[in-house]
């Protein structure tokens, strides 16, 4: 069905700023030069008329996947500033895809807190999945019948044998888990000897893997939203883990402090934080080589206006690309890094909350020679207004994909939170929040379709 899309570009406020590059260049102590960021000209305001041809939408199929996620006995925690209940168990759960059995198709791993066992859905290659977690040895991790409050799973070949191993996070001081692929459809729990059993962070929300030090193996970056930290004098923050594995032994070492990650990440929140001071606010990491030097750089989406873009110094360290100049997202949750405007470089979408107390919502940052400009207003990446009012939305995971085959990337954003509130001034209904689909035009502008 063809839809004629007419949108009016909006002018956004223009800011002139100064960026000073910092540290870790490996040049014998020489200071990095000051970099004066360009002053962006105002965006033009032409009427944009485009023809888009959408497909017939999504069709629910019976693929054999059926599950619930949740947790037992939630921890009693006070209301965050009298507004939002702070239960870390809300972050339990997650999913990962990968071809763990090397049969040429993608399988699915689902963790769902402690409400039930982990699920490993083996793909038969014809769109039908069967849960084989029990026979694979990863169903329950606390006992034969009980599970820990797991989150943030990741398929990654840790020991370089060509077979995907598994990392699984956890919340409320439950242990993370590392499973080595036995190359026969089963896994062995090697957490105790992996180095990651030493992890003391209260919550490990999500994970990403890449070879940041260019030594031929995949390292890990972990996020720890809600974990207490001594921000003024932090110990190693357990974010970046260097891979020291051999073919027969998975081994990781925390290098967060020596790599510069700890000091770059643990900055005080610049907006009011329901956690209070001295807490980690990181949610979603993404490794991408943004400056084309072959070394992966790092995007870290974080809450309370603490999201970071860290450049790889190519000597085992990272530096904050924007010291003193925070990204605008107020409540960063999820992350998608991709070329949304088809100009050959990576832009950054950050999901967030929009409502009475959270005016910013989702943000889109356009890459302009490593100077990221907030183009969110023109991009139209928040829930559409209804009856003249902004619909509230609490966004989480996001994926970028060309869903309609028009060579432009689209955004699929999951939303919702178990929280509703109403008085004579404001009304929140995050518990009724729906998934949104933003169809891309290929120029960093989008149209939301599912709400229609």
CATH topology: the name is Neuraminidase
| Spatial strand order of the main sheet | 25-30-31-34-35
- What is the radius of gyration? 22 Å
Strand fraction equals 25-35%
Quickly name the level 1 CATH class.
Mainly Beta
Termini, distance in Å? 14 Å
Mean pLDDT score: 82
The main pleated sheet reads as: 5 strands, antiparallel
Q: Report the CATH architecture.
A: 6 Propeller
Overall number of domains: 1
Helix content: under 10%
Unreliable stretches (pLDDT < 50, length at least 5) are 1-52, 78-84
Number of E strands = 35
Number of helices: 3
**Overall geometric form:** globular
Structural class: mainly beta
Characterization of the model:
This protein has 3 helices and 35 strands. A 5-stranded antiparallel beta sheet has the order 25-30-31-34-35, with no helix packed on it. It has a 4-stranded antiparallel beta sheet with strand order 7-8-9-10. The chain has a 4-stranded antiparallel beta sheet with strand order 11-12-13-14, with no helix packed on it. The model is unreliable at 1-52 and 78-84 (pLDDT under 50). It starts with a strand and ends with a strand. The relative contact order is 0.10. The longest helix is centred in the middle third of the chain and has 5 residues, at 261-265. The protein is mainly β and 452 residues long. Strand 28 (385-386) and strand 29 (389-390) form a beta hairpin. It has one domain (2-448): Neuraminidase, CATH 2.120.10.
